[in-house]
Write a structure and sequence with these properties.
Elements lengths: L1 H7 L1 H4 L1 H18 L6 H12 L4 H26 L10 H10 L3 H35 L3 H13 L9 H15 L2 E2 L6 E2 L13 H17 L19 H22 L6 H15 L12 H25 L5 H12 L8 H4 L1 H22 L3 H5 L6 H20 L2 H19 L5 H23 L4 H10 L1 H30 L1
Antiparallel strand pairs: 1-2
Helix pairs in contact: 1-16, 3-5, 3-16, 4-5, 4-14, 5-6, 5-7, 5-13, 5-14, 5-16, 6-7, 6-13, 7-11, 7-13, 7-16, 8-20, 8-22, 9-20, 10-18, 10-19, 10-20, 11-12, 11-13, 12-13, 18-19, 21-22
Length: 500
């Protein structure tokens, strides 16, 4: 135990590693806050700079960027309704309404503290239960990933404030858009109409910026005469009593984030969605309606996506399998330094495991420190007159989209998705399910087809496995329960509206 503690504290005691973690976290926060600049891209670029470094130095910098970047996406999600990353997609649902009410400072302060708690829970479970959770994730077959993705799509009812049917329509539209491009298994063209530009598919980052950023600009053009809301910056740091009040919810949603993050191929976006739905179903008296500024919704999303960071490291360190796109890049960095992540890592190189745990803990602490600084400056963004703010947001959308692949085609996609999102918003449709459909659709498609191939395309056998395998049975049951409760809840809402 004393040796593990010694390895854990390496990054804390070495001034150079301490500084690299700090600068990485600081940079990650602001990279994550800029739409189009993904954490995956930042970590990928770092490999070219750090391949000649000592492995501890490279891992320290990457861990800081990873942890800071996941948190940073919440800044623009709350202030501008533009998620800086897919993991902040759900954060915008209640964070932005809070900013519209003048509580941007409170929202950012609360999200920062709860992100810290979520990250801490994720790291704690990584430290204690890595082998156990890794063995659990090994039990997931392709059919289970299909069911998990389907469950995520059916959760769009939680994102649809007005109508379940509208939410399902937008989710299906997102799946359709996600199918555009080359078939991942056969490389045949799908929905490309013999157009070269469509073969690479629709970049979901460009679509996200369009549906959230550019669409919001078009919506706000109808409200140019509305004076900016003055933000209340008196109480940025949440009180201890408020943290205690939300602690049970944050622990539950953090646990969801860790488990989902430990599933290879998933990430903070699915984790935050599942946690948000849990909060919506379990919280009896929220501070406001979910989707209209509920602090519980903000907390659920932020704790889950930060806890998913620790979860993503579990299969990477213990199985050699990436938990998400960022850990896939980090695995490449480990290979470059001659290190083989996998089951033997805990016995052959335990110092790297404990160093990583300690380094993530340090990065999470820096998230709290840097996250609580500069809030007053950030919060004043929404007080800027719309005649100045909207053109600046438009420039940010264009530059951020172009930066993805240095392609004007992505900018055209962003503009097209923005116009579509504008008309959908005008008629009461939520655009968040579309983005989730684009992200989850390909995962569901590939997983189902792999599951079908595993039973020689015998669909009856595949359906039997949906209910005969314990993990599959739990997920199948969850989908049916979710569908039934969503339909009942939707009918109750319509009945209440008629009664009014």
């Amino acid at each position: 135990m004393s040796q593990a503690l010694e390895y854990f504290s390496i990054g804390w005691m070495d001034p150079q590693l301490f500084f690299l973690t700090a600068i990485g976290t600081f940079a990650g926060i602001y990279i994550g806050a800029i739409p189009g600049l993904s954490v995956t891209m930042a970590v990928s670029i770092l490999i070219s700079f750090t391949f000649s470094w000592d492995v501890n130095e490279a891992l320290a910098l990457m861990a800081g960027v990873f942890m800071g970047g996941v948190y940073g996406g919440s800044r623009t999600a709350i202030l501008l309704n533009i998620p800086g990353a897919p993991s902040a997609l759900v954060t915008a649902l209640d964070g932005y309404p809070l900013a519209l009410k003048g509580d941007a400072g409170r929202a950012i302060g609360l999200s920062t503290v709860m992100s810290f708690i979520g990250g801490l829970v994720g790291i704690l479970i990584l430290m204690i239960a890595a082998p156990i959770i890794s063995n659990f994730t090994l039990a997931f077959a392709p059919r289970d990933y299909f069911l998990l993705a389907a469950l995520g799509l059916f959760l769009v009812g939680s994102l649809s404030a007005e109508s379940l049917s509208k939410g399902m329509f937008c989710g299906a539209l997102g799946v359709l858009l996600g199918m555009v491009g080359l078939d991942p298994l056969t490389a045949e063209e799908r929905f490309t109409f013999d157009t070269l530009e469509l073969t690479s598919g629709i970049p979901y980052i460009a679509a996200m910026i369009g549906f959230f950023g550019f669409a919001e600009i078009l919506v706000q053009l109808h409200h140019l005469d509305v004076k900016p809301v003055r933000q209340n910056l008196d109480k940025i740091l949440p009180s201890l009593s408020l943290v205690k009040k939300y602690l049970p919810l944050s622990l539950r949603t953090s646990s969801i984030g860790v488990i989902v993050g430990a599933l290879p191929g998933t990430g903070g976006d699915i984790a935050s969605l599942l946690a948000y739905d849990h909060a919506k179903r379990s919280v009896k008296s929220p501070t406001a309606k979910f989707g209209e500024g509920a602090e519980e919704g903000l907390i659920a999303a932020e704790t889950a996506n930060n806890a998913a960071v620790g979860g993503a490291y579990i299969p990477m360190l213990t199985l050699g399998m990436p938990g998400d796109a960022v850990t896939a890049v980090i695995i490449g960095a480990l290979f470059i330094h001659g290190i083989q992540p996998g089951p033997l890592m805990l016995t052959e190189t335990p110092h790297l495991f404990w160093f990583t745990v300690g380094n993530l803990t340090l990065a999470n602490l820096f998230v709290l420190i840097f996250g609580l600084t500069g809030i007053s400056i950030f919060s004043r963004i929404v007080q800027c007159p719309k005649g100045i703010l909207l053109p600046l947001i438009f420039v940010l959308c264009v530059v951020g989209t172009y930066a993805i692949q240095n392609s004007l085609i992505d900018v055209y996609w962003m503009l097209g998705c923005g116009f579509l999102g504008y008309f959908l918003k005008r008629y009461g449709f939520q655009v968040a399910p579309i983005i989730l459909g684009i992200i989850l659709g390909p995962l569901m498609d590939v997983s189902f087809r792999r599951a079908a191939l595993s039973v020689q395309n015998d669909i009856s056998q595949l359906l039997w496995e949906f209910v005969s395998n314990p993990v599959s049975l739990v997920l199948t049951s969850a989908i049916f329960v979710l569908l039934i409760t969503s339909v009942i809840k939707s009918r109750q809402q319509k009945a209440a509206e008629r009664a009014d």
